[in-house]
Write a structure and sequence with these properties.
The termini are far apart. The chain has strands spanning 2-5, 8-9, 16-19, 22-23, 30-32, 37-39, 42-43, 47-51, 56-58, 61-62, 66-69, 88-92, 113-115, 123-124, 136-138, 146-147. It has 148 residues and is mostly beta strands. It is elongated and about 50 Å long. The chain has no helices and 16 strands. The chain has two domains: 1-64, no CATH class; 66-148, Leucine-rich repeat, LRR (right-handed beta-alpha superhelix), CATH 3.80.10. Helix content is 0%, strand content 33%.
Amino acid sequence: MQKIKGKSLQKIEGATTYERCSFYLEKGSKCGVGGSVFGGCSFRSDVIFADLEGCEFINCGFYGKLELDLSGKKLVETPSHVFQLQNLSKLNLSYNKISELFPEFAQLQNLSELYLSFNKINKLLPEFGQLQNLSHLNISSNDLFQLK
């Protein structure tokens, strides 16, 4: 695994350890950063991650929007690492095979947009009512029959 320390960077590579780096990423570009470790890093622009499998964020700061796009990944459940992203503002889990949502969604207090369309979800949990900043929820094309 490659290690990078104390640099200002405009791109992120997977399977890399970053220590005390500042990231100024191109607006709208998706970053696949699987297997990377970020320690004391600063993300100075909006960030769209496409894959966070095996990633770790230790004392990092996000100063723009933090988005995660896991659409079309054939997921059967929401990956647990998603719930560790307290600054997450937009999450796209559309076009997967998710059938159950977890109460841990309530931890994502900064979430303003959530896309769950084209899954197999059959109920929406009351914990979604705790997402005070959620202004857009797309749950179309699911198997919803009841709201609990």
